[in-house]
Protein 1
Amino acid sequence: MLPKSLKAVPLPDKDQTDRFTINPELVAEKSYKIVDPDNQSIWGYIAIDNTQRGPGLGGIRMVQNLSLNEIMRLARVMTLKNSAACLPYGGGKAGVSLRSFELTSGQRSELLEKLADCLYELPDYAPAPDMGTNEKDIQIIHNNHSQKLGTEKHSRGGAGRPVENGGVPIDDWGLTAHGLFSSIKVLESLDPKLDLSGSKFVVQGFGNVGAPAALKLQEAGAVLVGASDIHTALWNPNGLDAQALNKIRKEPGGLSNYLLKVDKKFSLEKLDWLLEAPCDILIPSARPDAITARNADRIQCRYILQGANTPSSKPVEYYLHHHRNILSLTDFIVNAGGVIGCAVERLLMMDDSYAEKVKQAGVKTYVENLIDKTISKNVCETYSRLQNNKDFIFRDAAWELALERLNTNEVWL
Ligand code: NAD
């Protein structure tokens, strides 16, 4: 049963700072639980990690078994991502814990209206699409806020909306995948051991990030040998057809509808086995902690391209780097394509002269060029810091870069 309304109730950070293991600097500026005020049941969480550069920009996640911890970790990644990309935003994240695919479209719209009412009270948070949400969902929130403000021209209510509503549709245009592809192309130019043509790659989570990333890599001559979604995991060392998978990924049953040849097909409880498949590039593109101590010894790739946010933790990445010789390209550097698109959309809405400049180039072309420029520069810079400090892993160098930018007012839009 859907709640009659939803309300954001501030959470005290005392509970977290009282723990011996929490560094106070890692506590979000503000965090909230999303509750049904009628019975205080918890529907989700919101974390606004840092607003030093601007409102906390980050997606809304609608998945099951969501915790405050997941949302806070993701909000921290957004702070680092928006800083590293020199966007005028801090980091934020929101999540509603449910099986969103079980909602009817009417229930979904009703829930989003309630969430929009709740988010309207938090001007420091700027929503965007994330796992389980899409452009149309953000448009519902935007419309709700337009009604409250009496105008459609405002910087509330989120970005990543459909193009026909003046948005930059980050999923429809595959913008995060565009950035992932830029990253791996730049790495190819820096690392003589990487040659994309003929490289074998695996995508965990064939969704709005994983699917377009697979299409781009396949087009560049790499071979998709493994792909998974929440229904199944498929393996074929001679290649899967990314286009065929893309056609069926949104059907009921998703990738289990794939009819072409596979060598192995894993069921729900064995989905993670695909992460251990031999390949050159592994692209985790689903929930946090796909790679942990439980499987770090069995991962067989040479490079990890972090499509997902927090697919592994720093200690695990140390182990992979120093003991397994696996280079893992950090989430907040390589998957920034989506937020760059969102930041462009928000400025298009508010600044007519910027809008004129962007429209002259064509919005999609402008955004893709900006993603290429930003992410290529950041991968190059992080890689060079990594080469200059033998104690660093990629994440350390990325962290150093993001923190430096957090303390500047530089904006790349
Ligand atoms: P999505 O909902 O479109 O796709 C997620 C995919 O993962 C789905 O195919 C789902 O079935 C699959 N999945 C879920 N659990 C799985 C599991 N245990 N094993 C295998 N597959 C599983 O979401 P998305 O927008 O593609 O986001 C994916 C990841 O990328 C998230 O971590 C998100 O934070 C991150 N990300 C997304 C964007 C964006 O632009 N959408 C930007 C940056 C980072």
Protein 2
Amino acid sequence: MASKNVLLGISGGIAAYKTYTLIRLFVKNGYNVKVITTKNALNFVNELTLRTLSNNRVCSDMFSFVGDVSTEHIALSEWADVFVVAPATANIIGKYANAIADDMLSTCLLACNKQIFFAPAMNTNMYNNKGVQENLQTLKKRGIQIIEPNNGELACGTVGQGRMAEAEEIFDRLEVFFSTKQDLEGKTFLITAGPTVEQIDSVRFISNNSSGRMGYALAQEIIDRGGVVNLVSGPVSIDILPNRNLHLIKVTSAKEMYEMALKYFENSDVAICSAAVADYTPKTPYNGKMKKKQESVTIELEPTKDILKTLAKNKGNRILVGFALETDNEIENAKKKLLTKNLDFIVLNSLNDKGAGFEYTTNKVTLIDKQDIVALPLKSKTQVAKDIIDKTLTFL
Ligand code: CTP
């Protein structure tokens, strides 16, 4: 861990005293630490102690370094592997949520494009204040990780939520962040996921049972390992936590999915098409609600475009992974798709396996490339996602 750089932002609250222990923990475990404080923070902790513990000068003022470079806020943000604000007061949370930069800490935060953690600390009523909670939601949506405050006795004497997480808890969160393999850093993935919905008229549609879970598990695995994901998703009822490396593009029809997949394929290193794309769509959707008739009706369907096949035509050096959902002659059919769609490998899902398929959180797949066929046991979709990404890496 010796090469990891932690930028610690301290804002003005009594919990600032815990940062002495936090800095010691980081330094003892081989991290480099630089500290930025707000002016108010220096009422609770002092510059000399912070400097001595971190073994680096402390930055509190935008303009205090005579003869220094004028873009210290940029240099510090670039130096950091991670930026932790502890304690995060209601004030700094509000400023950052609203992109205000009026001191060194808030300016550095805006200049930082690394992972940011906030460890809020404040009185329970302040913490529960609607405005503060909305600001925290805004931060979460932007991919900031919030290290939730604990319940307990607060400095003001009240008991409730608002006590900053202990130094050890903050340190552990950072250790988990750094210990996850970041082997996909610098790689961009396109993932298609979920079903598509093809309108028959304004209220009726043709779709399928795809839950999107496999595609979302893939996206999560890639983000966790430092990759960037453009997730083109049909309508699903699952969530994925916002992350600065995740771009969620919601689509409805096969046509929309086709257009978005092509758009994001251009800048991708890898495309994994896990979506259950409708093969047919109504030729002329009815404008409005079709009225009931006594006789039978025929809806003319026309084929949709094959996204994967189109991507394969412009493959270049990119890695292309497909899925095959089969019921008969599984291996043979999947191999056919591997070749006709010009894929690096294909993930075969069998509907004949118990616990595998659309509605389950588990899956049983076979990974097939031009050389090998590897049948994996029943696993969680998260674990299957790991296996698929590990296999993808062998082609990169
Ligand atoms: N696929 C796609 N665009 C389509 C249809 C399928 O990108 N219009 C992709 C799927 O995301 C999957 C792979 O092609 O990765 C195979 O999909 P599947 O439904 O198993 O096969 P099809 O090609 O549709 O053939 P069939 O339905 O006859 O099995």
Protein 3
Amino acid sequence: MSLGESGETTYSGHVGSDLQDSFGRVHRDLRISITDRCNFRCAYCMPEEGMTWLPRERLLTYEEIERIARVLVERYDFDSIRLTGGEPMVRANLPVLVEKLSSLGVDLAITTNGATLAGAAQDLADAGLERINISLDSLQAERFFELTRRDELDRVLAGIDAAVAAGLAPVKINAVLMNGINDDEVVDFIEFGREKGVSVRFIEFMPLDADDNWSIDRVVAQADILDAIAEVHPFTAVARNNDPANRYVFDDGIGDFGVIATVTDQFCDSCDRVRLTADGQFRTCLFATDETDLRAMLRNGATDDELAEAIVTAVGNKWAGHQVNNVLFIRPKRSMSQIGG
Ligand code: SAM
Ligand code: SF4
């Protein structure tokens, strides 16, 4: 390791080893956004109108995505890849990408709003998809419409059933909770999960909404979520490993749930994740304020060694952790759907 001209840490491009940052965290988990577009307009994520989409030529092709993933898997033993967006299901021929990535031998997952999943779950499973997270922020049709600005609750519920029927496992439900909006549904979600045999993960509202309406008062804190559930179904905490969610199993043996407490219980110490945006920018944190332009490198004929060196340098400069809920916090320029949640 040495200091570059700009004073930044640079690495000499060694490959075939752990992708480790300067705090000793080893990275094995890649999150890939494949589009910034979406068929929903969730209030905590996108404005109702006025999003500007990336021009198609700036999106990485499936071959370009596979190449970057292959570098990470073959050189740094990445074992987990999740596809996200925007809404990944709106990108054409998704099973083609799933097949390419699953052939790398990684644990492959997707995060989707589930609206078009009913007709696609089996094809995705057949292409090699293993796990799925489906976002669902209300079980009440009117509230679902207010939150997503789409009248599609029934289609999402059908998508969840289709994912289970296709053998995707585990099926997890992502629910973003906001005070005064859907915080009264915590127990309803838990009952839903136990009944369907799916695991609910509650997510604290993060300051990455395009409308910049986030405030700490709107965050439903992990402690309040746990209190609400404990009143109805006692549970026990289990080891988290590198999972961003704190995990709990119910004491009666029926199911489990998780909480992603980005705001009130930050988990940066054990972070093993890096990210690739739909336009080929490599990021070392959801909240990072800088990116490495791998698309430009790919399209300028970079070798795998050169890509690997840029990745090693970026990870070497990864910060200790984000500053959400702290005066030092600087919002990234892109919102959640543009980075890939
Ligand atoms: N469209 C897909 C979906 O909704 O599942 C994938 C992309 S979405 C950006 C990924 C996850 O981020 C979803 O579970 C969504 O609820 C969550 N999310 C979006 N904006 C958020 C915010 N401001 N705070 C917390 N979670 C957010
Ligand atoms: Fe679309 Fe997902 Fe954002 Fe909702 S959370 S607007 S479904 S990208």
